[in-house]
Specification:
Bound molecules: adenosine monophosphate, magnesium ion
CATH architecture of the largest domain: 3-Layer(aba) Sandwich
Structural class: alpha/beta
Low-confidence stretches: 1-17
Mean pLDDT: 92
CATH class of the largest domain: Alpha Beta
Helix content: 10-25%
Distance between the termini: 25 Å
Shape: elongated
Number of domains: 4
Largest sheet: 7 strands, mixed
Number of strands: 28
CATH superfamily of the largest domain: MoaB/Mog-like domain
Length: about 450
């Protein structure tokens, strides 16, 4: 879908085409490639297991123990010698609960009552589930597993085993799942519930991941009030700072939300200066297009006075929504800054396409992009020539996708009901229902 830089009057995103030199535009892929040059994995840190949720492992993990750590029973029942062929009455020589340390020796003609997860005693080579026995009742009738195993406090002197039990039956062998010394998870694996459970199972209390990027999220606009504050005439609630800070956290970052910086370049510069001390990444919304009061542009273009905070390049991308974007590095440490457009849908899509991969790179993820899957679109679509369009959609379990809301970038109501983006290629202008499209899945 990548095309080279556009020139001349056939580029519909350049309103001033025909002027002596049409301004350069960037494709989504070109901009993303530039943004990713600003990212490298952050230092590794050792954190408690639950703090690592969603982060990629920074180093391979080797098990120091076998799993299971000892031969244990997979059933409530009786540990016995398989050579004692059923039907047979066995003398019950012990009762082994999970966690038991002292184990009876099981000799020929003997059995030990055993609970799930309890160590298999020496001498036994199989476990008869309680329902294959009479549970010691003396009736010779199969025991009810629920009552016999769970509720029966009494350990009877003998048990009738009613069915033959093969050697090894119902025994979970030491090391049959994980062997000590083996690599159980490799660097880059994203730690979800099952991976964290495995780390705990092998006795690890902490794990090495990358430090969470500290992301400062600033929304700009003198029209913004914070949710809950009275909304005066012409004012709107600041939603972008919440969407973007939440998206940063969902991507694995620590996010500081600074809502509603007014359209005053001096104020914005002061806030940026403050954030530069701590931030690994700064994300702004609003103030990057071609209107008056485009505060981010004004504050960051050295021409507009004050100390030069660093070079931020303001660009037009061949995408919709999200055409105006800023990208650069600020301050002595070259902290990356992404200046996203202000329209809520534009800023969120820009975050997903450009900021999230940067955060995932800082976290050391091997694959920093959202999954893209093919789908059949259920509705007719039109799309502007020369721009990659990202429409909001709902991805059906049957491989279809249905657009949600229209193409306009202020539709926050519809955005909240979408779970994917329908990517319409630059060259496509008409897409009849039933066409195959690429869909960017937004769900974690
Ligand atoms: P701008 O890019 O600053 O011109 O903003 C474009 C549009 O997005 C305007 O309608 C703004 O009011 C709106 N907008 C900008 N910032 C926010 C925000 N933080 N929350 C909600 N809407 C916003
Ligand atoms: Mg604005």
């Amino acid at each position: 879908m990548t095309a080279g830089p556009a020139h001349g009057s056939n580029d519909p995103c350049c309103e001033d085409a025909g002027a002596p030199a049409a301004p350069r535009t960037w494709t989504v892929d070109e901009h993303l490639a530039d943004v990713l040059t600003a990212a490298a994995p952050l230092p590794a840190v050792e954190v408690d297991l639950l703090d690592a949720l969603g982060r990629p492992l920074a180093a391979d993990v080797t098990a120091a123990v076998d799993l299971p750590p000892f031969d244990n029973s997979s059933m409530d029942g009786y540990a016995l010698r398989s050579a004692d062929a059923a039907p047979v009455a066995l003398a019950v020589v012990g009762d082994i609960a999970a966690g038991a340390a002292e184990l009876p020796e099981v000799g020929p003609g003997q059995a030990a009552r055993i609970m799930t997860g309890a160590p298999v005693p020496p001498g036994a080579d199989a476990v008869a589930p309680v329902e294959w026995t009479d549970g010691g009742s003396g009736t010779g009738e199969p025991a009810d597993a629920m009552t016999a195993a769970a509720a029966d406090e009494t350990v009877h002197e003998t048990v009738q085993v009613l069915r033959p039990v093969a050697a090894g039956a119902h025994i979970r062998r030491r090391g049959s799942d994980v062997t000590a010394g083996s690599t159980v998870l490799t660097a880059g694996t994203v730690l979800g519930p099952a991976q964290l459970g495995l780390l705990a199972a092998i006795g690890r209390a902490t794990v090495t991941v990358r430090r969470r990027p500290r992301v400062a999220v600033l929304s700009t606009g003198s029209e913004l009030v914070q949710p809950g504050e009275p909304i005066g005439p012409g004012r709107i609630s600041d939603s972008n700072s919440f969407t973007l800070a939440a998206a940063a956290r969902a991507a694995g970052a620590e996010a500081v939300r600074i809502g509603g910086v007014p359209d005053d370049p001096a104020v914005l510069r002061r806030v940026l200066q403050e954030q530069l001390a701590d931030a690994d990444l700064i994300v702004t919304s609003g103030g990057v297009s071609v209107g008056a009061y485009d505060v981010v542009k004004e504050a960051l273009q050295p021409l507009h006075g004050g100390e030069d905070l660093g070079g931020v390049d303001f660009r037009r991308l061949r995408m919709q929504p999200g055409k105006p974007q800023g990208f650069g590095r600020l301050g002595a440490d070259g902290v990356p800054l992404l200046a996203l457009p202000g329209n809520p849908v534009s800023s969120y899509i820009s975050f997903e396409l450009f900021v999230r991969p940067l955060i995932r790179t800082m976290l050391g993820a091997p694959d920093v992009h959202r999954p893209v899957v093919p789908a059949v679109c259920t509705a007719d679509l039109t799309s502007p020539a020369g721009r990659r369009q990202f429409l909001r959609g709902r991805y059906g379990g049957d491989g279809t996708v249905t657009p949600v809301g229209g193409a306009s970038s202020h539709l926050v109501g519809a955005l909240a009901h979408a779970d994917c983006l329908i990517a319409v290629p630059e060259e496509t202008t008409v897409l009849p229902a039933g066409s195959r499209v690429d869909v960017v899945l937004l769900t974690d």
